[in-house]
Design a protein that fits this description.
- By secondary structure, the chain is of the alpha+beta class.
- It is 26% helix and 25% strand.
- Strands 2-1-5-4-3-6-7 form a seven-stranded antiparallel β-sheet.
- β6 and β7 form a beta hairpin.
- α1 packs antiparallel against α5.
- The relative contact order is 0.09.
């Protein structure tokens, strides 16, 4: 029998479609098994897990509904297991291996990978892999995300690879040793058992498939799947003009950490270069290299490969440069426990951002442009519950999706495969009571196409035996997060985690007054950075999710759509008037008043604008106005007699040669963040909203939030 690497059989298209979808269906069944056997909120309600199939050499073959972030990392994990065990204790049928070491393949220790070889006729023919974010891993802070950790040794159990199942039999001593190093051995044990069950399903289904079709055909299909994905992705990249694009993100609490990314496209290949990113932090926001690679892989397949198998073929066009010792490639013993929702969220946003800029230059692919999110806040919580049992769990909320070139963003639906907890389930199992759970009014980023509204909710203690609940604040800390606007669209309101202490909530509840307005609660409110904290009886915890960024100029939005947003309580009449320029009178759009208001807002935009630092040019009379490709909304690249220039696609204003920064030739205004909506008030004093417009016609080209002190 030929080895898998030597297989060259060509598979007919019908067989290819049937069997490739059969492989995908196996991974879907793995995910279903994880949910049905698992019992934690992370697995059953938030879908914080992964299931995938890999070839015998560890190459990614077929992921389920998992994020590309984890699928790529599990590919590294499979290869690490092969390296560690193939020539040592061996890899036998029925074995399963556990790995959660972030310096080898995992993202942080809470993500526990279980990796299983698949044998057929005593030959290793593939692997299955799962991960579940376990509820605890024995770190300093309950749940494993540890703000106080300054090195990885503070962050819980770290295993570079160990055989948990040997020839189909659980190694009970290993299982007990791992689970009893956590605060919740029963629940962590259940997490591991649901992974065992999912891998058992994968092995059984793969063996059935080989019985039915023969291993040689299944192997040939798997090779064709990888070749197909690479060929399609490279062809699509070849259709896009070459260029270089940059983006920068920031995480800010007591310190400020910056992540920088440059994307270089040449032909059908991409280089993601994180050179210039800050050195690794002594807070666990650091992202291991394989996870940084995973963010780039995940962003690329989501944007240009959403309709092809998301396998190892998509690795081929990608090179990732991440300097050692930085936030995106930390070296031992840097902590990492906060990274998936901090450093990982920022790296993912930057990969999305540079790829969005890239496809905006293509007539064919620019319809895929959309607003992306710079992250959100969430928390872990732990205490004795109302039944006298200790627990550790997660609280998060639903983000709003970014607007695209064709549609408004999705309200409370912005995060890929992950969802939020069920309120009734939370109140049944934990000593918490929700006060409200609603879409954020005025939170969505304004634009010609509006960003999706995120969700805000508040809760208090209820029937808490200890009179307190321990919390751990994580996510992208600071005010520079949430959805970012595209091509002039406004950013979404920041995602915040607020603790309102010493309120009158008990007094109001005793009077049967249901508190829905945080301002009426009294007390002192503070934003939570990365920290451990406590929720006490008179405290209210408020979580504000990220909202999506807008697309295009808000003054170009259809007034009737703004009216609908007002009626849905997503936009206030104040924001409709001051941001969208839409005047509403008695539930109808005042057309004349709207025209006057929009004219006035455009004049204000011009009045606040500062002349460009570098003069642009107007094309000479009779100039050939043909162009090679768009650059972004309202800008295009013009191939003139003296070279390629960036110009306004409306009035023809020339900003400068294509190899110079066009923004230096744009008019620039900087205003208080509340100009983008009342929910941006928390940024006042630290940030400004900067807008770039064409100096000749005043069309809005870009809207961004900048640091007032650093000017960036």
């Amino acid at each position: 029998m030929a080895s898998s690497d030597q297989a060259t059989r060509t598979v007919d298209p019908v067989t290819f479609e049937i069997l490739s979808h059969r492989l995908h269906q196996i991974t879907k069944e793995m995910g279903t098994t994880l949910e049905r056997v698992g019992g934690t909120v992370n697995t059953t309600q938030m879908h914080d897990y992964m299931s995938a199939l890999y070839r015998a050499n560890g190459d990614v073959l077929s992921p389920g509904d998992s994020t590309g972030f984890h699928v790529a990392c599990a590919g590294f994990a499979v290869k690490r297991i092969i390296e560690r065990f193939a020539d040592d204790v061996g890899i036998a049928p029925g074995d399963m291996f556990l790995l959660n070491d972030p310096y080898l393949a995992a993202i942080h220790q809470s993500d526990v990978y279980l990796i299983s070889p698949i044998h057929y006729a005593d030959q290793l023919v593939g692997w299955s892999a799962t991960f579940v974010h376990v509820m605890d891993i024995g770190a300093m802070s309950p749940g494993g995300n540890s703000p106080g950790a300054t090195e990885i040794c503070h962050e819980g159990v770290r295993i570079p690879g160990i055989k948990l199942i040997e020839r189909g039999k659980l190694r009970q001593d290993v299982f007990d040793a791992i689970t009893n190093m956590t605060r919740q051995p029963v629940m962590v044990g259940l997490d591991l058992k649901c992974e065992i069950a999912a891998n058992n399903v994968a092995r059984s289904r793969m063996q059935e498939m080989c019985d039915e079709f023969g291993w040689e055909l299944v192997d040939a299909v798997s090779l064709d799947m990888i070749r197909y994905s690479e060929q399609v992705l490279r062809r699509r990249l070849s259709e896009i003009p070459d260029g270089t694009w940059t983006a920068e993100g920031v995480i800010q609490t007591s310190d400020t950490w910056r992540v920088k990314l440059s994307l270089r496209k040449r032909g059908d290949s991409l280089v993601f270069d994180f050179t210039g990113t800050d050195p690794q932090a002594r807070v666990g926001i650091n992202l291991p290299y394989h996870a940084t690679f995973g963010t780039c892989f995940g962003s690329l397949v989501a944007l240009l490969g959403w309709d092809i198998p998301k396998n190892h073929g998509a690795f081929a066009p990608i090179e990732v440069i991440a300097p050692p010792g930085t936030i995106v490639n930390p070296q031992y013993p840097a902590p990492v426990s906060l990274n998936t929702t901090s450093g990982g969220a920022v790296a993912r946003f930057l990969a999305d951002s540079v790829l969005t800029q890239m496809i905006a230059t293509s007539e064919k692919w620019r319809a895929e442009v959309g607003g992306k999110s710079l992250g959100h806040r969430l928390m872990r919580h732990a205490a004795e519950n109302q039944y006298g049992r200790y627990y550790v769990s997660t609280l998060t909320s639903l983000d709003g999706g970014g607007a695209t070139a064709a549609t408004d963003g999705t309200d409370s639906g912005g995060r890929s495969n992950m969802t939020a907890h069920n309120i009734e389930w939370v109140e049944l199992n934990f000593p918490l009571l929700h006060l409200f759970n609603r879409h954020i009014k005025d939170g969505a980023g304004a634009g010609m196409l509006r960003g999706g509204a995120g969700v805000e909710y508040a809760f208090v203690l209820h029937d808490a035996p200890q009179g307190r609940v321990k919390g751990v604040a994580l996510g992208v800390a600071g005010l520079r997060n949430s959805g970012q606007g595209v091509f002039g669209g406004y950013p979404g309101a920041p995602s915040l985690l607020l603790l309102q202490e010493g309120t009158r909530v008990r007094e109001m509840l005793d009077r049967d007054e249901w508190p829905t307005d945080p301002a009426a609660l009294g007390g002192e409110s503070r934003q939570l950075p990365y920290c451990d904290f406590e929720i006490k009886p008179d405290d209210v915890l408020i979580m504000i999710a990220a909202s999506g960024g807008g697309y295009g100029d808000p003054l170009d939005r259809d007034p009737e759509l703004v009216l609908q947003d007002v009626e849905k309580l997503l936009v206030s009449e104040e924001m409709a008037r001051t941001v969208y320029g839409v005047v509403i009178v008695e539930h109808h759009v005042d057309r004349a008043g709207t025209e006057m208001m929009r004219s006035r807002l455009r004049e204000e935009r011009t009045e606040h604008a500062v002349a460009p630092s570098r003069a642009g040019h107007r094309p000479s009379p009779g100039a050939d106005l043909r162009y090679s490709h768009p650059l972004r909304e309202h800008l295009e690249v013009w191939d003139g007699p003296s070279g390629s220039w960036v110009r306004c696609d409306g009035c023809g204003h020339l900003f400068g040669p294509v190899d110079e920064d066009w923004t230096d030739s744009a008019s620039r205004s900087r205003r208080d963040p509340t100009m983008a909506g009342p929910r941006m008030a928390s940024l006042t004093g630290q940030y400004l909203v900067e807008q770039l417009t064409c100096p000749s016609c005043g069309v809005l080209l870009n809207t961004d939030v900048i640091d007032l002190e650093r000017g960036a």
